Amino acid sequence: MKARAPRIQSPREPETRVAPPIHALLRHHLVVCVGPGGVGKTTTAAALALSGALARRRTAVITFDPSRRLKDALGLDALSIDPHRVELDDSHFDALALDTKRTFDALIERFAPDPATTARILRNRLYREISNGLAGSAEYMAMEKLHELAHGQRYQTIVVDTPPSAHARDLLAAPDRLVNLLASRAVSFLQAPTSILSVTSSAAGRLTLSALLKVLQRLTGLDLLRDLADFMGAFETMVDGFSRRAREVDALLRAPTTAFVLVTTPDPHTIRTTMAFYRELVDAGFPVAGVIANRVIAFPPLADPETEVASCPAPLRGKLLHTYADLRTLSDAHAATLEDLQIETGAPLLAAVPATTEAPTSLSGLQRFAQLLLPPTAASR
Hints:
With 381 residues, the protein is of the alpha/beta class.
């Protein structure tokens, strides 16, 4: 029998457990977490979904790279494209993980003109190979799943954990890039490989290309070229549907009910990357709500250091004060980088999550992380 997910106590007044900036953030229909890899973006997205559930909102989180640790934290054996309920004490939220191929299959079924075309594409061996690997397909399918959830009216808040990307524009432009690829002239050649001969004016050019096609046929087999032409010919009937969906997704991402959140750490290199992400999002017209900074060191100055360590053994006092001075130096450095980020972008610091050695490996641990999503403190000043 499948084990029940662990349960945690939710507060009697859940609204008071969500810090005001985060509470306001979760009133958006769509919350998109963006940022470089390794900043705790997936954990942050899951904690935001948990906070939304405790605030009595119907909430879902969709993630791209669910680690074993996150699955354990959610109390789930696995994550898939289908919603998995995460039970709290008297509320819940849903968690999903992107499955590029299954989402691609569903899209084919939606846009194919008839069942015969659907079956023709789904059994095509080239489609089976590239539905997971076509450049931009994972990002496109992420946006497609997002579209499906946003228009299903099942959830009040959907939190999206985007995949790590060197540039925000690469993620958000992926639907258009994929559509443009499918509608390109190069693809039209793939629909009928021998048609490339007709665009070559010289006899020598046609002879060279003809020889090349014969070599490809001999090396790969005629079936491969037929599969390729069949696949691209079938896809031609769906370009309009893909284009329409891409436009709808773009409008959804720019809607006033959508909020982008930059997830970062105080590391100087990461801060510079986050600044670049911010500029790309703003230049493209996407609504940025603010920044969540993880792993922030924030130790306040001691009013009377000697008094603070007076109760400690004499040999330890100097070491403790020295260690605290090092932490104060690191605190100042973190505060400075976060201040630089705010000055450069003007984006509010929604939360400064303190560094902790305790990873959220359980649902209660994830709740503790969610409770750390507090309003900015000394680290932001």
